[in-house]
Structure formats: C-alpha cells, structure tokens
Amino acid sequence: MYSFEQLRGFVAVAEELHFGRAAERLNMTQPPLSRMIQKLEREIGVRLFDRDNRGVAITTAGAAFLVEAKRLLALAESAPDLARRISRGSVGTVRIGFTAASAYGVLPGLLDHLSRTVPDIDVDLYEMVTREQIEGLLTHGIDLGLARPPFDPDEFGSRLLRREEMVVAVPTGHPLADLERPLRPEDLQAEPLIMYSTTRARYFYDLVVGIVPVFHENVVHSVSQVLTIVWLVSARRGVAFVPRSTTLLGIDGVEYLPLVTEPRRPVELHLLWPRDSQNPALHAALRALQTLPVED
Predict the structure, then answer these.
(1) Which of 88, 117, 149 is the last residue of a domain?
(2) pLDDT for 259-292, tens place per residue?
C-alpha cells in the first residue's frame, strides 16, 4: 500500500514535471524521489510518468491518479482539525424533538439562533408529543426536546423558553365573542368542549382541568394535537383552550378570546436534554442557546 509521503512526492513531480525541482521543493535529493515514484508505480501497477532525455511527462493514468492523490492529501490534512472540532462540538449533529405547538414561534427562532452561532452543527428535527420526547431523550434517540413539564431533574437538564397565556378558541361569530371582556371559567361551563387526550396530551389536559371544571358530558372530542383541535373548532364542533401562540396558525373560521387565569401565563415550554449525553455537539448547542431570550 502506498503512503502519504509517496503521494506528496508524486504530486510534486506531476506539478513540476521535473524531478530536480520537485526534490528541491520537498527538501530531499533527486535519487530517493525517483526511487519513491518507481515504488509507487509498482504498487499501483501503472506507469505514472513518461521519462526520456527531453524531460518528464505525466501519463493519462497519472493525470487521473493526480486528481485522487490531491483529494486524499487534502482529506489527510483536514482530518486532525475535523477530529478536534468534533471533540469541541463545533461540528456534528443535534437531533431536536418538538411538539407541534412549539413549532409556532419558538422553533424557528431557535433554529435561526443555532444557524448564526454554531453554523457547522447540523440539526435533525423530529415531531413528537412530550411523552415521546421523554422516551427519546432517555434512549438518546434525540438530543434536545421542546417539551412541556413536569420533568425528572435527576435525568434531565432544562431551561424555560416560553411562558404564555391560555386563550379560548371559538368558531367565528360565537356568542362568547360578544361579551367584549376576558372570559371567566363560569362562561364556559355549558359549552361543548374539544378536549386534550389524557394520555397523549397530559400536560394540556391537566392545565385545562385546573382552570375550569370539565364535565364529561360536555366533551365532544378528545385529541392530542393543537392543530387538530383548532380545525375542529373551525368546523364548529365546539370550543377549546389553546396556547396564545396558536393564533399564528391563521386558520379561517376561528376567533381567539382572552381568558382570566391564575397565573396569567400558565403555559410553559422548556428546552430539555439528558444530563448524561456524551454528544459534544449538544453541549456546544447548549452553550450557544444560553443567549436565546426567554419569551415571557
């Protein structure tokens, strides 16, 4: 097998087309350079140069080999720097899980921030509900989550990214829109309610039942995704409690009404990561995200 030293010798001769000048460029004498090229030709089984009294000319096979030799040398020279950058986390891949609702507003800003601050880190995106994100983080299927509380602080590091109001989505023209004041829980007790699933959207389910008494007979649908809920509201199937960021969806046939709650901004979204992660790119991304402002 040929060596990188042989490749450097070959490239020097190919570019100079003169063994003497190539040897001087490599800080060596001509005889060992000639022997190096002869050995390289034997090892790869082709003639790389035509030599006669008039000089040196590269063969067709030699010209093709020159392209690959330069590529191999460039890779060899860049490999140590690449390894060091990977070790520092300045290159690599971060896999981010996100809820559908978190994509409205927070995710684009987070991706833009990473692109500016750590541009050589690749980002892979996975849409998941919070429960799926927790499982993915524990098994290291993803590196970061945009998820809802609660979390186990022994397993996960977390940082609050957004705190926002809960509003009421109603079909356009609904009588509640005529009240011209923030809604109170008692305004909604008789309304058909599009509710969150107790298993796949537990965070929002618990949040809603903590705000307003939910009577089973009032629930017309139970689903897990905010987008589905808003589509059902637009179809006049009922009313629903959604985060204020849902207004960014721009779905026709829906109005969003303010709601009196305590606290005023009960909906939280957190950045979440496994404490035992060994991915250097994750730690570089976390350092970059320290300067991402909290939306409050």
Answers:
(1) 88
(2) 998 888 999 999 999 999 888 889 889 999 988 8
The pLDDT tens digits for 9-32 are: 888 888 888 888 888 888 988 888
Range of the domain at 57: 4-88
Answer yes or no: are the C-beta atoms of 101 and 203 closer than 8 Å. Answer: no
Calpha distance 275→272 (Å, rounded): 9
Looking up tokens 């009313």 gives: 239
Instruction: Say which residues have a Cβ less than 8 Å from residue 184's Cβ, sequence separation at least 6.
Output: 259, 260
Among 88, 103, 121, where does a domain finish? 88
| Angstrom distance (rounded) from CA 46 to CA 41 | 5
Residue 120: per-residue pLDDT: 84
Under DSSP, is residue 44 helix (H, G, I), strand (E, B) or coil?
Answer: helix
Q: What are the angstrom distances between the C-alpha of 254 and each of 172, 186, 225? A: 5, 21, 16
Cis peptide before 119 (omega within 30 of 0): no
Cβ proximity of 146 and 96 under 8 Å: yes
